[in-house]
Specification:
Helix content is 39%, strand content 28%. It folds into two domains: 128 residues, Response regulator (Rossmann fold, 3-Layer(aba) Sandwich); 97 residues, Arc Repressor Mutant, subunit A. The protein is elongated and about 55 Å long. It contains eight helices and 15 strands.
Length: 259
């Protein structure tokens, strides 16, 4: 079941991955979904990872509870696939910690325990779904697809309002509450750029995408114009503007929001 990454190409604005397997090349168009897979059985981990990547998902793996939390805090994930019986920290405890930091990411438990009490405990801690081992890989992929679709719909609804740290953004009224604790109204373009960055939390958004989405194809503001918006966001939301935690400029690439 070996999987060797030969190259990554940029093609038609999408990432294409070429995988060599048994002397055959598979061309897979990657989607924008990032999954965290946490499983301590190495053989099962590799099988699940391979099948998820064949579906076009970007997959980060972890084999312990501590490693899972470290990876989760380093990046943005759309879904966490979490084994219950993990070394160091139990899967239930990992789920509880994740939910303290993020209420939106979808969580799917994998477990060898099929008792109703375990399922109820997992769901009470904030899991969205539960799959008992051994399971059919096709069923796992279907559940992943459904959870991501549901998560996208929920995120779109919740993005009428958004909070991070002590900051608040209301996308309907254009009102924000920043580090000074006061509510102020910002411009329509500022709200549009905020929404774009927040919807892509943890990912770099290119200057070209910002121009197309926020300014439209007919407008050609300079890079400095976008930089000024980012500086304004830091003034609104950052406790230390010179050491930003949320709004980042990635030189030569684009801009990124992190929670």
């Amino acid at each position: 079941m070996g999987c060797i990454y030969v190259a990554k190409l940029r093609f038609c604005s999408q990432n294409m991955v070429i995988i060599k397997r048994k002397n055959q090349y598979l061309y897979i168009v990657m989607n924008d979904k990032h999954l965290l897979l946490v499983e301590d059985e190495e053989h099962l981990l590799k099988i699940i990872q391979l099948n998820l990547e064949l579906e076009g998902y970007s997959v980060t793996t972890a084999i312990t509870g501590i490693e899972a939390l470290k990876e989760f805090r380093k990046s943005h994930f759309d879904l966490v696939i979490l084994d219950v019986m993990l070394p160091e920290i139990h899967g239930f405890d990992v789920c509880e910690e994740i939910r303290k930091e993020n209420t939106q990411v979808a969580i799917l438990f994998l477990t060898a325990k099929g008792s109703s009490s375990d399922r109820i405990r997992g769901l009470k801690l904030g899991a969205d779904d539960y799959l008992t081992k051994p399971f059919n890989l096709e069923e796992l992929l279907l559940r992943v697809h459904i959870l991501l679709k549901r998560s996208k719909t929920t995120t779109e609804k919740e993005l009428e309002q958004y909070t991070f740290d002590d900051n608040e953004v209301n996308f309907k009224t254009y009102e924000i509450k920043g580090v000074n604790g006061k509510k102020v109204e910002i411009s329509k373009r500022e709200i549009a750029l905020l929404k774009l960055l927040i919807e892509h939390a943890g990912k770099v958004v290119s200057r070209e995408e910002i121009l197309d989405t926020v300014w439209g194809k007919e407008a050609y503001p300079s890079s400095r114009t976008i930089d000024n918006y980012i500086l304004a966001f830091r003034k609104y939301f950052e406790k230390k503007q010179k050491e930003p935690q949320h709004f980042h400029s990635i030189r030569g690439v684009g801009y990124k929001f992190t929670e």
